[in-house]
């Protein structure tokens, strides 16, 4: 090995390694987002996307950290597996029963966190000036995506939070788990008739395939807003529904994606990146 090879080897060992695991993962924007954060903050790190099916999750995580990895993001369908794998969990991860961020601790243990909810709330408050306190909020869907955002929303003191789902019992049960955190109830879609909400959040995956839950007319109050946790290069079916129903703002989840990534970056690096330039860049690229 020459001197230059030795120097290159030393430099490589100084670069901390991070990754996102998921299945499928090839369209993930996370590597780009974290590289932009690293450039902006002067952090030396590597961040890659790795295709990991559920049955290989434990082996892949163990190998990643054994080979010097510092932190992982986990996306669908691995968040519940990551929750079980983490040695310790933050309160928000414990409540959500899902982990999207694993951070290696100084003692070698893995801390599990869920940054989805804070990512959503930050996008709504900081980027879109949508106030959540003392308003009527509706979440469509009672799956894992909903569970991850409930506690951070209730922390903002809404007037009421309703979870609507095709399977009524699932919505009622999920609401019951958070009853001590604020004014929350669960119901079926038919119970939304003659009710109005100031903010409607779509936490189902239906709109990506062009479908919507059965939503009654007049559901969105005058001056209300809509937000789809999913995102795409084209407006989702729910974003279009919001516009058709005269939402002041009808948004998708690209900002949430960047904000939850920024929270993970802060957990790992202790540095909080500026998100707005990254959101603006990604928005301009998909509108080109």
From TrEMBL:
<dbReference type="GO" id="GO:0019632">
    <property type="term" value="P:shikimate metabolic process"/>
</dbReference>
<feature type="binding site">
    <location>
        <position position="253"/>
    </location>
    <ligand>
        <name>NADP(+)</name>
    </ligand>
</feature>
<comment type="function">
    <text>Involved in the biosynthesis of the chorismate, which leads to the biosynthesis of aromatic amino acids. Catalyzes the reversible NADPH linked reduction of 3-dehydroshikimate (DHSA) to yield shikimate (SA).</text>
</comment>
<feature type="domain" description="Shikimate dehydrogenase substrate binding N-terminal">
    <location>
        <begin position="20"/>
        <end position="102"/>
    </location>
</feature>
<feature type="active site" description="Proton acceptor">
    <location>
        <position position="79"/>
    </location>
</feature>
<comment type="subunit">
    <text>Homodimer.</text>
</comment>
<keyword id="KW-0521">NADP</keyword>
<dbReference type="GO" id="GO:0009073">
    <property type="term" value="P:aromatic amino acid family biosynthetic process"/>
</dbReference>
<dbReference type="InterPro" id="IPR046346">
    <property type="entry name" value="Aminoacid_DH-like_N_sf"/>
</dbReference>
<dbReference type="GO" id="GO:0005829">
    <property type="term" value="C:cytosol"/>
</dbReference>
<comment type="similarity">
    <text>Belongs to the shikimate dehydrogenase family.</text>
</comment>
<dbReference type="GO" id="GO:0004764">
    <property type="term" value="F:shikimate 3-dehydrogenase (NADP+) activity"/>
</dbReference>
<feature type="binding site">
    <location>
        <position position="100"/>
    </location>
    <ligand>
        <name>shikimate</name>
    </ligand>
</feature>
<feature type="domain" description="SDH C-terminal">
    <location>
        <begin position="253"/>
        <end position="281"/>
    </location>
</feature>
<feature type="binding site">
    <location>
        <position position="116"/>
    </location>
    <ligand>
        <name>shikimate</name>
    </ligand>
</feature>
<comment type="pathway">
    <text>Metabolic intermediate biosynthesis; chorismate biosynthesis; chorismate from D-erythrose 4-phosphate and phosphoenolpyruvate: step 4/7.</text>
</comment>
<feature type="binding site">
    <location>
        <position position="91"/>
    </location>
    <ligand>
        <name>NADP(+)</name>
    </ligand>
</feature>
<dbReference type="Pfam" id="PF08501">
    <property type="entry name" value="Shikimate_dh_N"/>
</dbReference>
<feature type="binding site">
    <location>
        <begin position="28"/>
        <end position="30"/>
    </location>
    <ligand>
        <name>shikimate</name>
    </ligand>
</feature>
<dbReference type="Pfam" id="PF01488">
    <property type="entry name" value="Shikimate_DH"/>
</dbReference>
<keyword id="KW-0057">Aromatic amino acid biosynthesis</keyword>
<feature type="binding site">
    <location>
        <begin position="141"/>
        <end position="145"/>
    </location>
    <ligand>
        <name>NADP(+)</name>
    </ligand>
</feature>
<feature type="binding site">
    <location>
        <position position="229"/>
    </location>
    <ligand>
        <name>NADP(+)</name>
    </ligand>
</feature>
<feature type="binding site">
    <location>
        <position position="231"/>
    </location>
    <ligand>
        <name>shikimate</name>
    </ligand>
</feature>
<dbReference type="GO" id="GO:0008652">
    <property type="term" value="P:amino acid biosynthetic process"/>
</dbReference>
<dbReference type="Pfam" id="PF18317">
    <property type="entry name" value="SDH_C"/>
</dbReference>
<dbReference type="InterPro" id="IPR036291">
    <property type="entry name" value="NAD(P)-bd_dom_sf"/>
</dbReference>
<dbReference type="InterPro" id="IPR006151">
    <property type="entry name" value="Shikm_DH/Glu-tRNA_Rdtase"/>
</dbReference>
<dbReference type="InterPro" id="IPR041121">
    <property type="entry name" value="SDH_C"/>
</dbReference>
<dbReference type="InterPro" id="IPR022893">
    <property type="entry name" value="Shikimate_DH_fam"/>
</dbReference>
<keyword id="KW-0560">Oxidoreductase</keyword>
<dbReference type="GO" id="GO:0050661">
    <property type="term" value="F:NADP binding"/>
</dbReference>
<feature type="domain" description="Quinate/shikimate 5-dehydrogenase/glutamyl-tRNA reductase">
    <location>
        <begin position="131"/>
        <end position="207"/>
    </location>
</feature>
<dbReference type="InterPro" id="IPR013708">
    <property type="entry name" value="Shikimate_DH-bd_N"/>
</dbReference>
<keyword id="KW-0028">Amino-acid biosynthesis</keyword>
<dbReference type="GO" id="GO:0009423">
    <property type="term" value="P:chorismate biosynthetic process"/>
</dbReference>
<protein>
    <recommendedName>
        <fullName>Shikimate dehydrogenase (NADP(+))</fullName>
        <ecNumber>1.1.1.25</ecNumber>
    </recommendedName>
</protein>
<feature type="binding site">
    <location>
        <position position="260"/>
    </location>
    <ligand>
        <name>shikimate</name>
    </ligand>
</feature>
<feature type="binding site">
    <location>
        <begin position="165"/>
        <end position="170"/>
    </location>
    <ligand>
        <name>NADP(+)</name>
    </ligand>
</feature>
<feature type="binding site">
    <location>
        <position position="75"/>
    </location>
    <ligand>
        <name>shikimate</name>
    </ligand>
</feature>
<dbReference type="InterPro" id="IPR011342">
    <property type="entry name" value="Shikimate_DH"/>
</dbReference>
